[in-house]
Design a protein that fits this description.
With 202 residues, this protein is mainly α. Helices cover 74% and strands 0% of the residues. It has two domains: 89 residues, no CATH class; 102 residues, no CATH class. The chain starts with 19 loop residues before the first helix and ends in a 7-residue tail after the last helix.
Length: 202
């Protein structure tokens, strides 16, 4: 879970619903149940195609939104939700097939629980949003790159042997950056709260 992005000066975030970036985010969400079924049913080619298309549309919706000024509040909500759901779905599917250990799932999900608690505390103090940090985005990208390689690593051939170290390399970087982002957000939140008047939301 990444903290929500605050608009900067001169930065317009619209309330439009029907935009191309939003449509791409919705398509990613529609593909989730098919993706989960493909992993559990060991239809790895289909799962890889959906995962790659998800990564491509994730890149395109942000690029299009910024390039053509189509950023919207709905898009800011849907995009991180889609990222989180794909990460959780992939973790559950890979753990179900014993491709990754359960402790890795726990470590990553625990990070999201910690971030959710931090966000709730910030809202309680009247701080409704903070800028998205590059480290958090980098962590998400590393994990999303790791999953296709880890899925390929389940193959009992040279492709699987080649994919395994690459997948785990991305996975370890993703875990490290994921938790490093929590530390950075905590430091950033403390600085923001120290500079802001105390406002408690009922």
């Amino acid at each position: 879970m990444d903290v929500e992005q605050q608009p900067t000066a001169g930065h317009v975030v619209s309330g439009r619903l029907l935009t191309l970036p939003n449509a791409l985010s919705v398509l990613r969400l529609i593909g989730l149940p098919v993706f989960l079924w493909a992993i559990v049913a060991e239809r790895d080619i289909l799962a890889l195609v959906i995962l790659l298309l998800s990564g491509l549309t994730d890149y395109l919706d942000g690029k299009i939104a910024r390039r053509f000024h189509m950023e919207s509040r709905l898009g800011q909500f849907l995009d991180p939700i889609a990222d989180r759901l794909y990460i959780v779905t992939t973790l559950v599917g890979l753990a179900w097939r014993d491709i990754i250990p359960v402790w890795l799932v726990v470590v990553l999900l625990l990070r999201d629980v910690v971030m959710a608690g931090m966000l709730l505390y910030l809202r309680h103090r009247g701080q409704v949003g903070m800028p998205v940090h590059f480290v958090g985005k980098a962590a998400t990208f590393n994990l999303l790159y790791a999953f296709p390689f880890l899925l390929l690593a389940d193959r009992d051939d040279w492709v699987g042997r080649l994919a395994e170290p690459i997948g785990w390399g991305f996975a370890w970087w993703g875990v490290a950056l994921y938790w490093f982002a929590v530390v950075l957000y905590a430091v950033q939140a403390r600085l923001v709260l120290e500079r802001s008047p105390r406002v408690v939301l009922s």
